Structures are given as structure tokens and as C-alpha cells.
Amino acid sequence: MHIVLITGISGSGKSVALNVLEDAGYYCVDNLPPALLPALVYAVGEKGADKIAVAVDARSAESLVELPVSVRHLKEEGHNLKVMFLTSSTHSLVARFSETRRSHPLSHQVRPGENPASRRTLIECIAEERERLSAIENLGHVIDTSELSANKLRQWIKELADIEHAPLTLFFESFAFKVGVPLDADFVFDVRAIPNPYYDLALRPLTGRDAPVIAFLDAQPSATEMLEDIKNFVAKWLPSFKTDNRSYLTVAVGCTGGQHRSVYMAERLGAYFNGTERVIVRHREQPKHVAV
């Protein structure tokens, strides 16, 4: 089983790392007491999963001492286990907590003999957390995120976990401008400038998925030219969106009624990119969506 254990200082990016692994198909558990790690691996393995990602932090201080033992045992059992320890400078952590306005996890814990009404400062919490985690800092690969953007951290986590770039799902969606532009659209193309099959009474009841409408639009030079322009635009910029760690990209194509021209274009685009990408074609104004 592939196991990725993420630990480190709060605010250093553990949630970002865990989300990357979840998007890559890992069964993810956050804030797991280390003593429960072997039991979790067994239980998830019984369900047929072969990839687990677990985040452990200083809130489980009492059982952190058991973590090195659990890691060693799991490796001895043949599991492919990687440990990532995320850290950051105190200055960066203070800035991040200030930006998010979230409290430090240890600020809610009361130490023995401490006045429950008193609250430790953020810097005191960070210092205590470093002390609690110092024994396991060298258990795996240490990543200093002080100067890392979230996107760069995602890229590094993928590389360290041997994750190929998670496949981006490319949506081509037809719609009717008279109903409104889809809110989830990343790009919107207006194809109302090409001839409208609606004005041919024989084609009016059909859609852009029917052969007579397809033949009509295939014969229109403007439709062919616009289709090529959209293809080229998407093909040019798609690699950039993959590099940006996007999971989805929605290309919306609209005409007046969402029945003929936009449906035709979405189908043609889906068929073109289907050979190299994960593609879903959907027609908002039609009763059925099509997965390509």
C-alpha cells in the first residue's frame, strides 16, 4: 500500500498537501492520533484501497512518541511509506495566521497547572509546537514552505509522492444566451455569428447532435473557421492550466437557444480533444449530458 504521512508545523501547508493527495485518489485522514495509524492502514486496506494519506500534528502530543515505531513497522510489513515534514519560519507563520485570522490549534489546549482563562500568544504556541514535533522532524523529508507559494508546494508534493500530474477534466458546455451564461464557465465563446439552422424549418426541431444539422454547419465556412479558432485557443492554453494544478476547465459555448450551433460546437470540440484529454461534454439546455 502507498502511504503518505504528512506532519509538521501548523500553518506550514499540511492542508494544501493533503488536498493534493486527495485529488490524486488517496484516502485522506486529517489529525489522526499516531497510535491509530496501523489500525487505519489495516481497515482501509480491507476495503480495497491502496493509497492512504494521513496528516498528524502536535495536538496528538501524547502519542507522537509512537509514530517512529509505527512508521518502522509499516515499512517492515512492505508498505511504501513516505513521511513529509512541513515547516516554516516563525515570521511566515505569524503572517499566515494573521491573514487567515485563524487561531493556532494549541491555543485551545490548557497545560497542567495553567489557568484555563489564560491564552498563550501565537508565538508561544508556535514555539511549543516546534518543541513537541522536534523528535519526529527528521523522520522523513523536510520541506520549508517559508517562501513557497501554495502552487509551488502542490507541485513539490506531487513530485515527492511520485504523483503524475492529476488529469485535468476538460468540460465543453453548450448553453443558451437567452437563459444566461453558466456561472462555472472559465471561458465563454459566442457562436451566434454563424448561420442558424433554426431558420430551416426541417432543421428547427433537431439539435446540433443530429446528422442533418451537423451537415448544415459543416458546410458553413464561418462555422469551420470559428471551430478551428476555439480549438487552437484551448490547445494553446491548456498546458498552462495543467501547470497551474487545475482539476477542471470549463469551456462554455453559447448560441441563442442552446439547441443547434452551441451543441454542434461542444460536440465537435469534445471529439477533437477526447483523444488526449479527459473530456466531458454537457448540454445545459438539453435533457442529457454526454461523457466522452
Largest sheet: 5 strands, parallel
Instruction: Trace the largest sheet across and list its strands.
Output: 2-3-1-4-5
Integer tally of domains = 2
Measured distance between first and last alpha carbons: 31 Å
What's the gyration radius in Å?
26 Å
CATH superfamily descriptor of the largest domain: P-loop containing nucleotide triphosphate hydrolases
Average pLDDT, to the nearest integer? 88
Q: Determine the structural class based on helices, strands and strand pairing.
A: alpha/beta
Q: Unreliable segments (pLDDT under 50, ≥5 consecutive)?
A: 288-292
If helices are DSSP runs of H or I spanning 4 or more residues, what is the number of helices?
A: 9
In CATH terms, what is the architecture of the largest domain?
3-Layer(aba) Sandwich
H and E order: EHEHEHEHHEHEEHHEHEE
Note the beta-strand portion. Answer: 15-25%
Number of strands: 10
**What general form does the structure show?**
elongated
Which percent bin holds the helix content?
A: 25-40%
CATH fold-level label of the largest domain = Rossmann fold
Q: Which CATH top level class of the largest domain fits?
A: Alpha Beta
Could you please describe the fold and organization of this structure?
- This protein has helices at residues 14-23, 37-46, 67-76, 90-100, 122-133, 150-160, 211-218, 221-243, 261-273, and strands spanning 2-8, 27-29, 51-56, 80-87, 141-144, 169-176, 187-190, 248-255, 278-283, 290-291.
- By secondary structure, the chain is an alpha/beta fold.
- It has 2 domains: 2-161, P-loop containing nucleotide triphosphate hydrolases (Rossmann fold, 3-Layer(aba) Sandwich); 169-283, no CATH class.
- A 5-stranded parallel β-sheet has the order 2-3-1-4-5, with helices on both faces. A 5-stranded mixed β-sheet has the order 7-8-6-9-10, with helices on one face.
- A hairpin with a 6-residue loop joins strand 9 (278-283) and strand 10 (290-291).
- Helix 8 packs across helix 9.
- The longest helix is centred in the C-terminal third of the chain and has 23 residues, at 221-243.
- It is elongated and about 85 Å long.
- Mean pLDDT is 88; it is low at 288-292.
- GTP binds at residues 57-60.
- Keywords: ATP-binding, GTP-binding, Nucleotide-binding.
